[in-house]
Design goal:
2 copies of one chain form a homodimer.
Chain A lengths: L2 H7 L14 H11 L11 E6 L2 H10 L5 H4 L2 E7 L1 H34 L3 E2 L7 H8 L6 E9 L14 H4 E4 L1
Antiparallel strand pairs in A: 1-2, 2-4, 3-4
């Protein structure tokens, strides 16, 4: 799919077809897109939990304060940051900025790749990190930073949320 | 350009043709891509400084610890976060996570859009935020989070940095 079409088509999908098969090849394409994110100092301070197990998806929906569509998606990818991996080289700035930026871009690459493959997803940021860590049995060095339910969009898709005009969000120097 | 080709083609470009014209239409396409980033609660806690002025680019190179290619790019976009705009709704999590994620994705959309239009750029994260704020005369509510020099790639482009195998960066549940 054309790059601009992917950007235009992407929106938050929270309503998924229930019977969609998620192939290993599809998952691999999403992960390959993820690791094509830029990475500060190539630290690759990220880890991806690929969840198909229904009970674990249910647990993640609980961690996300009951957002039930998290459990209804056939696939949930939880993007994790490894703050100390980044801090090892960059100190506080790595821990509190770079690893969050790198994983954010990796998450977006996953969502854009899903669109390019005829799927859709949603960026869930509102969740209890401690509870997500329990559900996934995360090692202590990882921090879950985004929960991405992914599936085939069902029903009528929502309209794109509006954006402020470029004039109000940009300043021009020279 | 095809979405996957954009992903595959993107790499950090630090060597730019010196005579490239940067049209207002090109800048607008980059900004339109930027604001197509997802935004937590649609807070749009971002602002973009579009810099063509050579003196200001030089100042940004100084803020970036003398990374001279920042000044050599015909266009530099500085992506800023508005932490309180996000914190107004989400408190600490908005201030320290969501606004950094949203602006990171906006920055990546700019870099990918540049590739799709035959340009290239680089994500510069290593800079003195206070000095960048001085150079741009930023209002106090904005925080510069990424400096993006953009131009036509010159000379031989670097190879893509290597990535760890998917097996080492992903875990599968179910």
């Amino acid at each position: 799919m054309d790059f601009w079409e992917v950007l235009e088509t992407r929106r938050s999908v929270r309503d998924f077809e229930s019977s969609t098969e998620v192939s290993p090849e599809f998952v691999e394409q999403l992960l390959q897109a993820a690791v094509r994110a830029p990475s500060a100092g190539n630290r690759q301070a990220w880890h991806f939990y690929v969840v198909r197990d229904p009970k674990v998806r249910q647990g993640l929906a609980g961690a996300a304060y009951g957002q039930s569509f998290v459990a209804e998606a056939p696939l949930v990818i939880v993007v994790c940051a490894d703050p100390e991996q980044s801090a090892g080289r960059y100190g506080q700035r790595g821990r509190e900025l770079y690893c969050l930026q790198d994983t954010a871009v990796a998450a977006e690459h996953i969502l854009l790749a899903a669109v390019a493959l005829g799927f859709g997803g949603c960026w869930v940021g509102a969740f209890d990190e401690g509870r997500a860590a329990q559900v996934l049995d995360l090692p202590s060095h990882l921090r879950a930073v985004a929960i991405l339910p992914i599936g085939k969009p069902a029903g009528k898709q929502g309209i794109r949320t509006s954006r402020r005009s470029l004039q109000t969000v940009a300043s021009f120097i020279g």
